[in-house]
Write a structure and sequence with these properties.
Elements: E1 4-8, H1 10-23, E2 31-34, E3 41-45, E4 59-62, E5 84-88, H2 99-110
Antiparallel strand pairs: 1-3, 1-4, 2-3, 2-5
Length: about 110
């Protein structure tokens, strides 16, 4: 499975995940939560969907390209994977967080 990711740290990440949950009826697409360190949220979006768009401050785009590789932690679907877990697990192959909706909500929340 290939994807880009958007990382938002701390309480801002949680607020963004909460908003996406409300707007999508509880199924925003796959989101990974990290329980330690920056306490990040990783929103998995379609490959290439973060590249040519401006994102608000506090949002880190993680994608691959020429001479650039990004590391995105992904937990197993089952079993112990602390400090990572699924806030919203993948529901089917090819299901991602909607990048434009995510960017719009992040812009409203973070400027």
């Amino acid at each position: 499975m290939q994807f880009d990711a958007v990382r938002v740290d701390g309480e801002d990440g949680r607020a963004l995940a909460d908003s996406m949950e409300r707007l999508t009826g509880g199924d925003p697409g796959p989101v990974v939560i990290e329980a330690n360190g920056r306490r990040s949220m990783y929103f998995l979006v379609p490959p290439g969907s973060t590249v040519h768009r401006a994102w608000p401050r506090g949002v880190t785009r993680l994608n691959a390209g020429p001479a650039h590789v990004a590391y995105v932690p992904v937990p197993a679907l089952e079993g112990r994977t602390w400090p990572l877990s699924w806030r919203f697990p993948p529901t089917r192959p090819g299901r991602y967080v909607h990048a434009l909706l995510l960017r719009s909500v992040a812009t409203v929340l973070f400027g």
